[in-house]
Amino acid sequence: MDLPPSLRRFTPRFDTLYLPLKQTPAERLTAARHPLGWVLRVMRAEEASPPDMKSALQEAAAELGALSKKERATWEEAIAFLWLLIQHRRPVEEHKVLTRVIEDSIRDRRRKHEVRAMFKTMIDVWREEGEARGEVKGEQNAILQLLQLKFGDLPPVVVKRVRAIHDLERLNALLKDAWEAQSLKDIRWRTPKKR
Fold first, then answer.
1. Secondary structure of the chain in the HEC alphabet?
2. What is the pLDDT of residues 139-156, one digit of tens each?
3. Where exactly are the structural domains of the chain?
4. Is the pTM of this model over 0.70?
């Protein structure tokens, strides 16, 4: 903040707390027996060998499984985070095995069922998002191909405009415009205002 000297003493000052996760001993992370410590312990092992990662995950999942019913929300968040960590930070060929480690660590049948449903729901959401993104990209590609067939090489600004549209309804309208256009100037890039 650029303040006059008389006001500088009122400027808030915050120190950054830095935790060197890879250098912090695993036992220190979990000394307080807090769920976050177990999640950090797995994060610490994210680049470890498959057996070491599996071991860290087994320990964490077992400890998290001992949380009380009052701590259910914390348990769900921690399990979801561990699953996301597996999906994003470990090789694809390990995903099933490591997901199974989490499931197998849960003794309560109801909780085990909840975890399977949670994982399935997350996968379904990702799949739907991927399909939607694929549909949008396919529509964008169709418009660009049509425009290129009709008018030759496209200016980068036209490609950028098409790629910036993610609404399927708008893309469908744009495809119709591209089909009927006699030149690039005939295309309505903005959605017409509804009356």
1. CCCCHHHHHHCCCCCCCCCCCCCCCHHHHCCCCCHHHHHHHHHHCCCCCHHHHHHHHHHHHHHHHCCCHHHHHHHHHHHHHHHHHHHHHCCHHHHHHHHHHHHHHCCCHHHHHHHHHHHHHHHHHHHHHHHHHHHHHHHHHHHHHHHHHHHCCCCHHHHHHHHHCCCHHHHHHHHHHHHHCCCHHHCCCCCCCCC
2. 898 899 889 888 888 999
3. 26-116, 128-186
4. no
